[in-house]
Amino acid sequence: MTAELALGLPVVVVVLAAVLMLVAAATAQMRCADAARAAARSVALGEDAAVQHDVVARVAGAGATSSTRSDGDWVTVRVEAPVVGWLSAVPLTASAEAVARAEP
Questions:
Q1: Domains identified in the chain, total number
Q2: Given CA atoms 33, 74, 40, 84 in this order, what sign does their dihedral have?
Q3: Backbone φ and ψ of 48, nearest 5°
Q4: Sheet holding 93-101, edge to edge
Q5: HEC secondary structure over 15-48
Q6: How many Cα atoms occupy the beta-carbon half-sphere of 70 within 13 Å?
Q7: Is 54 helix (H, G, I), strand (E, B) or coil?
Q8: Which InterPro entries match (predicted)?
Q9: What DSSP string describes 66-87?
Q10: Cα 42 to Cα 90: distance, rounded to the nearest angstrom
């Protein structure tokens, strides 16, 4: 019984760590998508870059970065943020893009 526990417990810990990192990555991805949509709406309404960066920091977190690209009447915002987890040996980055039509 002790040998099975000694062999099985590390496997359970590794699987639990993988599940927790997956949850952290999914959460970061959803926050990036929400931040990109909010920032794209903000830019489409004519807000300046400071407001866009404030929106991204508020929704995706302080470590998030954003870039804006304008193509005629369309605005594209890309947001990237690091995946924060207790198992940060593997650096992961979540990213998302959103497109909005600029308001007249």
A1: 1
A2: positive
A3: -85, 175
A4: 65-71, 74-82, 93-101
A5: HHHHHHHHHHHHHHHHHHHHHHHHHHHHHHCCCC
A6: 9
A7: helix
A8: Rv3655c/TadE
A9: EEEEEETTEEEEEEEEEPP-S-
A10: 33
Q: Find the helix or strand (DSSP H, E) in which 96 lies.
A: strand 93-101
Handedness of CA 35, 38, 40, 42 (dihedral sign): negative
Q: Which pTM does this prediction carry? A: 0.83
Cα separation, 45 vs 100, whole angstroms: 9
Per-residue confidence in pLDDT tens, the chain, 104 aa? 788 888 888 999 989 988 888 898 899 999 999 999 999 999 999 998 899 999 999 999 889 999 999 998 999 999 999 987 666 667 889 999 999 999 87
Give CA–CA dist 32/66, Å, rounded: 10
Question: Domain range holding 88?
Answer: 2-101
